[in-house]
Amino acid sequence: MPAANSAQSEGPSSFAEAATLELRDVSKRYPRQDEPAIADLSFTVGAGEVCVLVGPSGSGKTTALRLINRMIPLSSGDILLGGRSVLHRDPHELRREMGYVIQQIGLFPHQTVAENIATVPKLLGWDKPKISSRVDELLELIGLDPKDIRPRYPAQLSGGQRQRIGVARALAADPPLMLMDEPFGAIDPINRSRLQDEFLRLQELVRKTVVFVTHDIDEAIKMGDRIAILRQGGHLAQYDTPAEILMNPADEFVAEFVGADRALKRLGLSTLADVTLLAPNGVKPDGLRLPLTTTVRDALSQLLAEGSQPIAVVDDDGKVAGVVTLELLGRLLA
Amino acid sequence: MIGIAAGGPVIPNFGGGSASFACERANRLFCAGWVSRNWDTVLWPALRQHIVLTVIAVAIGFVISTALALVAYRRNWLERPVLIVTSILYTIPSLALFELLQPSFGLSRTTAEIALVSYTLLIMFRNTLTGLREVPPEVRDAATGMGMGPTQSLLRVELPLAAPAIIAGLRIATVTVISLATVAALIDNEGLGVPILTAISNEVFKTELIVAGAMAVALAIGADALLVLAQRLITPWTRAR
Question: Would you call B95 an interface residue with chain A, using a CB distance cutoff of 8 Å?
Answer without folding.
Answer: no
